[in-house]
Design brief:
mainly alpha, single chain, 4 helices
């Protein structure tokens, strides 16, 4: 069959096949988008954990301040609530960090490009994890800054 004799639908299919990017490019771009999405999820968990740390630490410090100002002793409930909030923040951040690293390792095995493997959020999450642990220990032993 010559070009003139081919039906229009066959010509359109051939043109579409020529303009399609190769499958490898699609797969790699999907991996990069997934890596950035995982990074965004980690940063969201970091924000949530930081909020829990801050709220728990603020509750305990506020009630410690009230105890120091007055002669009365307040119940231990608010202090426990603060410790629980800080602990939940640490746990959530730790689990999110482990899950993010595992996801990056799986994508690296699938061929994730080196340029997409940024570790700044991972290092930031580790630093925030250490700060959360320090806040928990300081709050537990009633250390003040």
């Amino acid at each position: 069959m010559s070009e003139k004799e081919k039906p229009q639908s066959l010509l359109n299919n051939e043109q579409r096949e020529r303009t399609k990017p190769p499958m490898d490019f699609r797969f790699l771009s999907a991996l990069v988008r997934t890596a950035f999405s995982a990074e965004q999820s980690l940063m969201s968990w970091m924000r949530t954990s930081l909020s829990l740390f801050t709220f728990g630490f603020s509750i305990t410090q506020f009630f410690n301040f009230l105890e120091e100002q007055g002669d009365t002793s307040l119940s231990i409930g608010p202090r426990r609530l603060g410790l629980v909030l800080i602990s939940v923040g640490i746990l959530a951040l730790g689990l999110a960090l482990v899950e993010h690293v595992q996801r990056l390792r799986r994508m690296k095995k699938q061929g994730l490009p080196k340029i997409s493997q940024y570790f700044l959020p991972v290092y930031s999450a580790m630093l925030l994890f250490a700060i959360g642990c320090a806040a928990l220990i300081g709050t537990f032993f009633k250390w003040s800054l």
